[in-house]
Request: fold
Amino acid sequence: MIRSSPAPVPLEQLSRRAPHSGCIPASLHPPGRGASRSLPGAQGVNRARGGRCRRWRAGLGRAPRSPPGNSERLCRFPSGGSRCSRYKAYMAPGSSKEKKSDDGQASKENFIHLCNPHLEKMKEDILYHFALGTGTHDFPKLFGDVKFVCVGGSPSRMKAFIAYIAEELGLGSPGCDYPNICAGTDRYAMYKVGPVLSVSHGMGIPSISIMLHELIKLLYHAKCSDITIIRIGTSGGIGLEPGSVVITRQSVDATFKPQLEQVVLGKTVIRSTNLDEQLAKELMQCSKEIGQFNTVIGNTMCTLDFYEGQGRLDGAICLYDEGEKLQYLKNAYESGVRNIEMESSVFAAMCNLSGVKAAVVCVTLLNRLEGDQISSPHDVLVEYQQRPQKLVGYFIKKSLGKV
Amino acid sequence: MIRSSPAPVPLEQLSRRAPHSGCIPASLHPPGRGASRSLPGAQGVNRARGGRCRRWRAGLGRAPRSPPGNSERLCRFPSGGSRCSRYKAYMAPGSSKEKKSDDGQASKENFIHLCNPHLEKMKEDILYHFALGTGTHDFPKLFGDVKFVCVGGSPSRMKAFIAYIAEELGLGSPGCDYPNICAGTDRYAMYKVGPVLSVSHGMGIPSISIMLHELIKLLYHAKCSDITIIRIGTSGGIGLEPGSVVITRQSVDATFKPQLEQVVLGKTVIRSTNLDEQLAKELMQCSKEIGQFNTVIGNTMCTLDFYEGQGRLDGAICLYDEGEKLQYLKNAYESGVRNIEMESSVFAAMCNLSGVKAAVVCVTLLNRLEGDQISSPHDVLVEYQQRPQKLVGYFIKKSLGKV
Reply:
């Protein structure tokens, strides 16, 4: 059963609630997109919200930081005539409002910082690749209690994670299946138990980018607050024993710069790929407390290709020799890179812009200084892939006061 | 039952064979990667092949074209000291050898042009994202008769396509299921019936790029010849009635240039994204013969993002206004762009380099000059998505002399 209250649940209350069941009601899925737009609870997106950002400032060079405590950031369109081809955008504070906890302590509730003024004008918002929409689904009811979102490439791994976290949090019931909330499409898979949402994102920057656009809108429409998003994935390590876990300090591109280049309306845009330092430290502390596998904090290189883009010699196309490859990987190591994957840069950039705390936790399946092919036995790889799940599962339990 | 002969089947013989059944034997899947490396028929990749390219020339500016009739192209590593950060690579002729058909006519058989000398040194090749390997699977036996490969984003659509083509070619049997050849992973799905292979590729350039590296190696290891690869997909149209089908003339980037920029060992590489003109014309002729939907030949813009990258106003982040968006789309239209998707550029570039005939056939789900959201009813979208399948299905039937 999913919580029926549309209001977000303060984090500190979650640990005191009776256990949620992980099962999603069958009524979640409408009969078909476009078939019914007037289900009970259906609503548009055109509603007021305190502290919401309206427009985003973008201009030449460094954008001015908001003064401390100014939680509402003014976003303006870049001016048409003098717009520059490159600009930077920095971490947006989540829109926030003050709330009081049960013991009268005041604290701030951080909402999603949606940086798109056009959505206000839309009567409904269809999240096409999730097969969900504000006209057919009651987002606050379905997702309003979400506090932790874990994302990863593989649908089956994200299903396994939801079963794991349900058991860890004492929210699972024996034999309970966790249905795919995005069953109307095979683009992504989504599962939920209590305050945890688990979503697959496929492989590569474009694939996770589509998912994140729709996920951020989903969390916004659901009026979620105080969200933490963690990517749990696999990667190639550099100079690390296979099976090591890397918590990303910065996501860097294939030239080792902590930035993401995107092309928007034909112009190059550069965005910051910093991640939440405090969250990375908390995750590192969790790994020490678990004490089961080697974990480091390091830079993660994010590439657009698995073979040539990561200097592999075993793709269908390879125009360089082993010496050039090794030199490139050694240069990466010297610049602080400890692992390579394909999603972290846009993940960091979009979470920054949306004011969401984010972390990337990936296990290394091999040491790229020693080879390219992933040839470890299946059971060894399966155990490696469980390590980020264990670490993030422990972090969530600890955050909820269940450790 | 899959054909047991490892030798490639001449295209002209295929139409005269008794119908193949589409079912894949259960013995296809080994018990687990790494568990057994010595199945009957297992073989390494280190074998001689006539006409195989060893090294690829890459240097500053335009690479010299091979003289006509010179089917073996010399590939050299770029020289380390003087290597340039940008170079172009052009269409490689497939490695070929002469063969005689039943009536004594001589013709050339085109093999995959594998542009990686390092693979020769590998004892086995693990196609990690397919969960297949030369040490555990007999590629010539499983795939040697493949002549047509159809690729598309969605696993379920590619499964539907294999059932459709099986019926069209008279190769299906009632109630026959088409098992996923890549059942050992959920990264991609692959189905086969007779000479047709159907493979999903997920969303975006990185995702299809991984699939194509492994697909091209699979076809090479299987000793396939005379391969045609067609991407069947969905897209946003520009200035076209929704449901129109676009056969891509050239894939262009977000600045309307017919090229793909990749970063290899930290250096930018630019590759041509031309597609086979003759194949596009043949597909256009097929559409005329079917006469069921509007089809055009036009340029296809390939972007790294679905929302900002395609000028949508409905993503989680949008820093431009409607006027700027429309101007961008009109500029695209004026440059010859008729639809936008997210995979065609690397598809064209990699097929060029591998000497494989390739085409992109995408239906348009909406006219982007009129909106951003895909809001047509589900059944309408399903019918639209069947149009590229119908067109390519008819083309394959015609190529096999079954029309």
User: Anything to note?
Assistant: Residues 378-399 of chain B form the longest helix (22 residues). Chain B touches chain A through 86 residues (CB under 8 Å). Residues 1-91 of chain B have pLDDT under 50 and may be disordered.
